[in-house]
Amino acid sequence: MSAVDHPAATEVLRPPPPPRGWPRERVIGYILVFLWALALVGLVAYLVSAWKPDMFWRYAPGYLSGVWVTIKLVAISVVIGALLSVPIAYGRMSRNPIIASFAYAYVYFFRGTPLLAQAFLVYYGFGSFRPQLDAIGLWSFFRDAFNCALFAFSLNTAAYQAEILRGAIQSVPKGQWEGAESLGLPRLLTLRKIIFPQALIVALRPYGNELILMVKGSAIVAIITVYDLMGVTRLTYSRTFDFQAYLWAAIIYLLIVETLRHAVDWVEERITRHLRR
């Protein structure tokens, strides 16, 4: 009898039967989803039952003003930080040890210390040098708590954006530089026309995360008397002692973050269309 005719040789190996019932991971997942849904329903029920129209209409304009202050603070600081991040990223990639050391020290300090401590250093520290700042005409700027927060936030996000930009530029293959050099293109033109467009695709998602972190981190400026969204929320709670004040703020922050997240997704989809063809 040949090997083909042997029953053992023609036997088909079948996969083991799937386990009966639900796996433990699925059961735990369903329980967690149920608990989250229950918490959401409870939160909505609380908001509906404790809804106070007179309180809402009384403090809604203040919340809108706080949202505008938050958006203005984050937007201006991110733009200034983006401008500052370019020379800092260039310094981090520089072959000059002095320039590279200064850029590294800047990034190390602002990424290694809390943003709240940096805001305190600017707000309270610069106030100790009022005569010197007044002599050079800068006290009119630093006397305003919003400007102090803007200054601290700009320096902080510049350090993070510099690292994002440096990593994105270094992710571009060296062959792009070599090809541009072989064509005789200047270095700045190579950066602007070849390297930056490719680096932007890599850096877009980290830039979006940094923007979202700045929005959530902006709540700390309420401690230095800036009436942003959290500052208005604290003021509202101090007058009403109603827990809804913080729930409103949390919902508004969530809406802002979700809007930014979808905007980043839309931009990423637009600039990466050529990669999906």
Automatic annotation (TrEMBL):
Stored InterPro entries: AA_ABC_transptr_permease_3TM (IPR010065), ArtM/GltK/GlnP/TcyL/YhdX-like (IPR043429), MetI-like (IPR000515), MetI-like_sf (IPR035906)
Task: Report the residue ranges that make up the ABC transmembrane type-1 domain in this protein.
Answer: 67-264
Give membrane topology per the record.
Answer: Multi-pass membrane protein
Subcellular location, principal: membrane
Superkingdom field? Bacteria
Q: Which CDD domains match?
A: TM_PBP2
Question: Which parts of the chain span the membrane according to its record?
Answer: 27-48, 68-90, 102-124, 136-156, 211-233, 245-267
This chain belongs to which protein, by name? Amino acid ABC transporter membrane protein 2 (PAAT family)
Origin organism of this chain?
A: Aquamicrobium defluvii
- Organism classification: Bacteria, Pseudomonadati, Pseudomonadota, Alphaproteobacteria, Hyphomicrobiales
